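Record 1 of the preview.
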Amino acid sequence: MSKLYSIPKNKSEVSILDAGAGSGILSCALLERLERMASVQTIELTCYENDDNILGLLRENLHTYQANSKKDIQINIITDNYITSQYLDFNHMLGGNPEPKKYDFVIGNPPYMKIPKDAPEATAMPEVCYGAPNLYFFFAAMGLFNLDTDGEMVYIIPRSWTSGAYFKRFRQYLLTEGKLEHIHLFVSRNKVFDKEDVLQETIIIKVKKTNQIPEKVIITSSQSSSDFDNLTSLTVPYSLVVSGDDYYVYLVTDEEEVSVLERLHRFDKTLPDIGLKMKTGLTVDFRNREILRDDAEEGAIPLFYSQHIKQGEVQFPI
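->
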């Protein structure tokens, strides 16, 4: 994750935000990279963490790094709730800071947790909240808010936000205020956090805070978190990856999938546009034998299987 940042070679001062810092492993990885850059002299690191069980370890790790670094490192650990402590700023409300602190780089592994619609974090960010909210996308949205113009954010988060109605507002915010530059996919869903009970399909995303739409997105993939030396890489047009008014994100992994997506994007109408009302998943044949018919009759509706669609045409009945 720390390697994904584009850090100017002449940059002397760097500000970093790590929200939900945990033990500080992501911060230390980024500090380690900056340590090797001769131009960087001053580093300001802000970490949010309010779990008493790990705060002691976080402080110890960061202060140990600080003591052994050749750079001037300033460390600020904030124990407030990352989301609710900034809601006045985020919503531009009375009492908020009209010029809140902004950072060059944001890095994070936020908590993955469904929360109620009336949870404090959900009510604090109504602009991105819809349906069944999850803490991770509030963290990602707030991280983008905390970025300076042209700053970069790298997060490891579940891939569920890339489609679906519940995440529509979040996608609109993320991909309007920022632009995807790099996506990393893991083929194995249970080997990323191999010592934890995490079965979410996670991805790493790099987002730049800019209004300028890039021409391409880099999509890399690895089997797990232990074989980054053996990556596959694909460069894909941005308009293929981020598509439509709903800002769906298509996670293509090879040239064949790119070709399929290009063909699909040539269609300018949906099925309802051409008078076809379709339903999926409501009828399971073996559970609804009493309503099935062998022959067409008045009011009956065709039940298609995949074998009814051949060479781009519906062949029914067969």
